[in-house]
Amino acid sequence: MTSVALMLVVAAALLHASWNGLAKTSGDKLAFLWLAMGMASVVLLPVAVALCIRGGVPASSVPLLAASAALHAVYLATLSRAYQHGEFSRVYPIARGLSVALVGVVAWLALGEGLSPWGIVAVIAVIAGVAVVAEPWRRNAAAGVGWALVTGCIIAAYSVVDKAGVQRAQPLPYFVLMIATACALLAPACALLAPVMWRRRRHRAAEWRRNRRSLAIAAVGTLGAYLLVLQAMRLSAAAYVAACRELSIVASVVIARVVMAEQTRMVRLAGAALITVGVVGLARV
Fold first, then answer.
1. Which CA distances in Å does 68 have to 110, 143, 162, 240, 258?
2. What is the DSSP track for 210-236?
3. What is the dihedral of CA 142, 144, 150, 154, to 10 degrees?
4. What is the pLDDT of residues 248-268, one digit of tens each?
5. CB within 8 A of 44, min separation 6: which ones?
6. Whole-angstrom Cα distance, residue 218 to residue 269?
7. CB atoms within 10 A of CB 271
8. How far is the C-alpha of 139 from the C-alpha of 17, rounded, in Å?
9. Is 114 helix (H, G, I), strand (E, B) or coil?
10. Of 57-61, 85-89, 207-211, which gets the smallest average pLDDT?
């Protein structure tokens, strides 16, 4: 992995953990995520349209864009449920860590990317660190774990799809159109989420009144983090980018301990250190 790609991914990790922390502390998790994504889409949609007119999104990337949008719609639903039921410092590591292992396998099968022996060792170190941070042996560890596992699978799926998508289009128009389409899928056109969003329309309005500032920060954070990752994927293998992105797990443990006052023991910090070792190993591959 190049130093530029590593810096992009580290910045994305910090942004990602921060806006996810805001989502965790919100009232209605799904409403918060839906509104943040909607704000991001409204701001950048004109830019995407202008870039598309100039030919920024080839026709070959459209099916991948649609697939990514659908996956992100499901991601919002599963992530909100995970945050509703589980601790931030446990749910976030499980969801993000599982995606590391899955992306490596799927990218190898679907995109023909390979991992060197040292790359495999580094990825294993990241995954082991994630397992330690999650502390599955503790009482009540199952809270939110099921939804976190599903979310990890969705993250892996859209990571591979996006890797293929940015190889055919520039990151900005691809991302903005994807996120705009994903938000549209959360409207009545999406049969799975439309009833949920309709029932929560009052909660959605209340969430907007209470957390407009946090929503704006989350919108900027999700845009910035995702664009940085897409650009990094143009410079390095998807498996390495996905693994290094998991530095956000370290940030999530710190945020949970300092900001949310969760009972994160030293073992989770040790797991975060192991993740860091694995990421440094990947950066030197």
1. 15, 28, 7, 20, 34
2. H-HHHHHHHHHHHHHHHHHHHHHHHHS
3. -140
4. 888 888 888 888 878 777 887
5. 172, 176, 179, 223
6. 25
7. 23
8. 25
9. coil
10. 57-61
The residue among 39, 162, 38 whose CA lies nearest residue 107 is: 162
For residue 92, give its domain range.
Answer: 3-283
Neighbours of 116 (CB within 10 A): 12
In the numeric block, which tokens belong to residue 229? 């990752």
The structural domain count of the chain equals 1
Cα atoms found within 13 Å of the Cα of residue 207, Cβ hemisphere only: 24
Alpha-carbon gap, residue 7 to 279, rounded angstroms: 12
More confident residue, 134 or 149: 149
* Residue of 229, 262, 220 lying closest to 24 (CA atoms): 262
The sign of the CA dihedral 23, 254, 140, 16 is positive
Alpha-carbon distances of 255 from 89, 140, 263, rounded to whole Å:
8, 21, 12
Give this prediction's pTM: 0.76
Q: How is residue 237 annotated by DSSP? A: -
pLDDT at residue 66 above 50? yes
